[in-house]
Amino acid sequence: xxxxxxxxxxxxxxxxxxxxxxxxxxxxxxxxxxxxxxxxxxxxxxxxxxxxxxxxxxxxxxxxxxxxxxxxxxxxxxxxxxxxxxxxxxxxxxxxxxxxxxxxxxxxxxxxxxxxxxxxxxxxxxxxxxxxxxxxxxxxxxxxxxxxxxxxxxxxxxxxxxxxxxxxxxxxxxxxxxxxxxxxxxxxxxxxxxxxxxxxxxxxxxxxxxxxxxxxxxxxxxxxxxxxxxxxxxxxxxxxxxxxxxxxxxxxxxxxxxxxxxxxxxxxxxxxxxxxxxxxxxxxxxxxxxxxxxxxxxxxxxxxxxxxxxxxxxxxxxxxxxxxxxxxxxxxxxxxxxxxxxxxxxxxxxxxxxxxxxxxxxxxxxxxxxxxxxxxxxxxxxxxxxxxxxxxxxxxxxxxxxxxxxxxxxxxxxxxxxxxxxxxxxxxxxxxxxxxxxxxxxxxxxxxxxxxxxxxxxxxxxxxxxxxxxxxxxxxxxxxxxxxxxxxxxxxxxxxxxxxxxxxxxxxxxxxxxxxxxxxxxxxxxxxxxxxxxxxxxxxxxxxxxxxxxxxxxxxxxxxxxxxxxxxxxxxxxxxxxxxxxxxxxxxxxxxxxxxxxxxxxxxxxxxxxxxxxxxxxxxxxxxxxxxxxxxxxxxxxxxxxxxxxxxxxxxxxxxxxxxxxxxxxxxxxxxxxxxxxxxxxxxxxxxxxxxxxxxxxxxxxxxxxxxxxxxxxxxxxxxxxxxxxxxxxxxxxxxxxxxxxxxxxxxxxxxxxxxxxxxxxxxxxxxxxxxxxxxxxxxxxxxxxxxxxxxxxxxxxxxxxxxxxxxxxxxxxxxxxxxxxxxxxxxxxxxxxxxxxxxxxxxxxxxxxxxxxxxxxxxxxxxxxxxxxxxxxxxxxxxxxxxxxxxxxxxxxxxxxxxxxxxxxxxxxxxxxxxxxxxxxxxxxxxxxxxxxxxxxxxxxxxxxxxxxxxxxxxxxxxxxxxxxxxxxxxxxxxxxxxxxxxxxxxxxxxxxxxxxxxxxxxxxxxxxxxxxxxxxxxxxxxxxxxxxxxxxxxxxxxxxxxxxxxxxxxxxxxxxxxxxxxxxxxxxxxxxxxxxxxxxxxxxxxxxxxxxxxxxxxxxxxxxxxxxxxxxxxxxxxxxxxxxxxxxxxxxxxxxxxxxxxxxxxxxxxxxxxxxxxxxxxxxxxxxxxxxxxxxxxxxxxxxxxxxxxxxxxxxxxxxxxxxxxxxxxxxxxxxxxxxxxxxxxxxxxxxxxxxxxxxxxxxxxxxxxxxxxxxxxxxxxxxxxxxxxxxxxxxxxxxxxxxxxxxxxxxxxxxxxxxxxxxxxxxxxxxxxxxxxxxxxxxxxxxxxxxxxxxxxxxxxxxxxxxxxxxxxxxxxxxxxxxxxxxxxxxxxxxxxxxxxxxxxxxxxxxxxxxxxxxxxxxxxxxxxxxxxxxxxxxxxxxxxxxxxxxxxxxxxxxxxxxxxxxxxxxxxxxxx
Length: 1460
Description:
Largest sheet: 6 strands, mixed
Shape: globular
Strand content: 25-35%
Helix content: under 10%
Distance between the termini: 18 Å
Number of helices: 14
């Protein structure tokens, strides 16, 4: 026999010895030997300082940095020398142009190829950031320690000092996409080099691929956009008997065909300043709209943050200001101004432009195109990819590309179809849109992509995917007179026909002169209606004044397809004609939305916006007078419109909004000025130009996922497309083909999105299974709850009698699980930054958490669920009772225990990421993939949609659904799914058939594993000097195995220095005996300077904001929450706490509980919280009173891996003081080495050949901590960082009760043997000011020792309070993206961590290279300053569990060696 760990390590080391030879420190010899004959590719790269000009308005980072191809350095230096700046670092060079050579570095390589990179640091020493070191760190597993690009622990430094060079060696594996950046400087402030541009990416293609410039055809390894062709092309189908855009393939074959490859490298908030010409032109408020009565803003804000893609950005502020300034320049004929900008244009109708802002900020008719690298191009039908790379340090982004859909996991056709994707810092994502350019119906035009976080969109994070239908040879022009760049066709596709006078192609065929009244007042043209001689149906309604169309021109008629319909006329492939068409009539109205009607603190939005189904509301209720300032308060919810797969929805959408919205504390007035006469007239800006325009107030109805035509019905005004927003009082027609059972298809504002969407301007189409019928007991199709069935005898709904079908067959039909023909459907639609008001003590309407000034992009308002909220501060003040007693205002969904449920989860607004959880229920990560992992938590960003399939494995009782971050939960984002015994008790029309139900779980087993756990108060030491004196822990004292063996856990065991981890096997019943030993006296107040939520008022200790003059004082004089008056603290902690005088309305609970996710349990007994009717006297108390013990019982019915646990007796206090834990569940016949503690080893069952031995480590992320050094509070950030702390960033961060010593720690720290490179100062030592050695200074307790080549289970637990995502990266390693998918899909960084309740077990092989490999948060913004990193020390003599593992039989070893 052989020790299994030794055997596995031997195999890995033998393989790696051939694949990844050990490199020398300099790698110089390898560089000299690197030739194509040796399967090696060389790149010479220079890190240099250079101004980054993001756009032609002159937004510039003067002291930017970039990785540049060394051969480009002389040209870049000449360019740098030509730019002039003043003493305020503002660009004064004019006219302003971007430089196409200033871009993020892109490298390309082949599979299984060695890449050698020579990095030279030529950053000048005389810039404000002196002596910047540079390390080229690749987020991958492709290198040895000398190529890490960092200085981690005891490793030698692998970065480059100014003036030096070094060589990096990367061994590429299979096709992949990797991010790289400077790991020698990981500052999170504006002084950091990553913030200023030192990042890039490398893509690995199949061997023999070529990458060429789409315009010239030259080989171009650094192109942002390139045409990729495999070495051996499939036989090209160049049959000229059919159009070039055919055939239509759902899944392009990227291995056999050429495709367009487009990089989008995202970045957020670099240090930026406006150009000097802008300040000169806008002096005295000339660039800010203000009215004739001298109201309005007197001065612009000169500088603001921007969001960046590919070093380019188009901020909405620039375009809004340009609209007015430019029209004045046209009239006045001014010189020496914007007219000299080469890409701007003159058109007569622009003199009458009345731009208002967001409705036209991505409009090329008025503004021109965005700069290069924001406009990748293609011909109809071209296969293409988008490569998303996150080079930023702080924010997650949600990428959305209009009209397309793609599978959430590339190459996995069972994964869900999506069109919006969250991706986080340091991560990469590959998008493979179905059907190719122009989608299934082959539609030319401008297709916008953008970050869906609306402030980011407004700050410039957007661009176009331009699709042509005629050949572009570089000799044609856009409507503004700018030349169209040449675009070569892909070699294996037919070229399009050249443009002709009668068929000039997009955008030349579009009406642009205004001769037909189409380009009213200089905005882009309205869509045309269908000419009579082409109409195939009655379209007389389009001729009425109620519809927003115009007659077409001859060129437009010639460009229409063979079957033009309203909202779908220019697609080359018309919609199918035999598919059922359903007409929907809906109106957008302004309504006073009530979020919560509490008598003393009602929450409402008087300017709320909601869609209503015209069939459900009579005409008189839908009339909104333009003079009406408000409507009666009432509850509303986002409109749901349902249709089955195979249906075409013809949606007639009406703009019923008033034509004036006055200024509020949240928003500027719309329009900015209001005429005394006709309220539809917009008064001119002061300036003497004498121009007037009409404010049209366009309403956008942009839809996701379903097929539609973006030229005429995108609900937006993108590029050269028509203005497809609907004007006041008008209707427009949208045709949506539901060709897949997508689930929720988001619909929302696009014009004025930053203003309107947070007021509720969002809804969705529910794309149901084919042939579905639905009812909500009231017949309304728009309900939040319904029952969906097909072919069920108890269902009778007149609509959709005949199951519709698709005209074009699918290559892969993604239907719902076999045997399920009914389900309960629940809609949960949440949105943040909702504009909310309340009443003060005088009954006056006052704002809640408004921005610093109206119209700014600050975090603001609150978060709501289905336009409702149930804030915890208006519930019972006792923490243990906040979820019981009265029903919440939020929606209560009713079901029958065991019924199949589909929860449709959507986020409608606005910027934040959220973590959604349901107690006692679980689902597969991808509803369409029954092999994907089981979860009960979902992270979401705006516009993302998720279907949570809950297959009946739950019992009766009240199951709480919630957004689990305290910033969301405290302000009311929770509700109840109430599970009944029968459908009659639930008030439902009928029971589901047996095929749609599951038996209720039986929480029992003959194998019982028991743990005895104490909850204690204790000071938690996070490093040498920072502690939480108010800390709390779960501490395991005893463990009884199912066979009766008992283990006593010593009080001084080192496992207690980390959050508690318990383990069990599948099929076991877990009993946790929890004893409450907390030292918390009655009526104890929380800590000083506690982390706040959006509805806190710090001086009143958590009462709602609202300028309350006479704050109601809550008395805690009953025994409901004061469980034991005899308890006193063993230590005097009063100096760390608030008292009754300065915190009258919040107490800390004496009680404790244990809530665990994923495991099965009785929701009425072991949920750890009394929710709704799961409360005394119906159900027992689920918390533990002081000095008492309670048993929590869980069934480990599946091998879930890590299951997060936490306290729920006091959600506002206990968790961020340390009451977090986890239970890990393994397959039944797994051998576990340590049953408690963060570190263990496991031996999983035999597969065909070998058992698998794993080292295991659990890392808990923590935030919202309040740490102290002596009697001083540790600030959220170093004062030198100058960072304005948002709610989600308040409090300190840590990993598993540990923090690496923060860089620039503001307090003295104790010197230790492991704290290297420190400078002695009186009273102790502080960290070195050098920024390139911070990874050397660490907490020795954050070192994890492992052996080379070991199999590793690395679990991440979100023991978090806040909603700021972090991410996890281990240098030199890569994780499986999804454990059930083959190794072909790897990621270098973990998917972005949500807030609390996240859990994930990642599997990887430890590198064979000894050394120190840093593990860290990818959020550089907080990583260094908060010490969110540690070291995985790979050592041949490192910790191993080989002695624990069963030996592998020799015959198995021989079989394995023979096969190898």
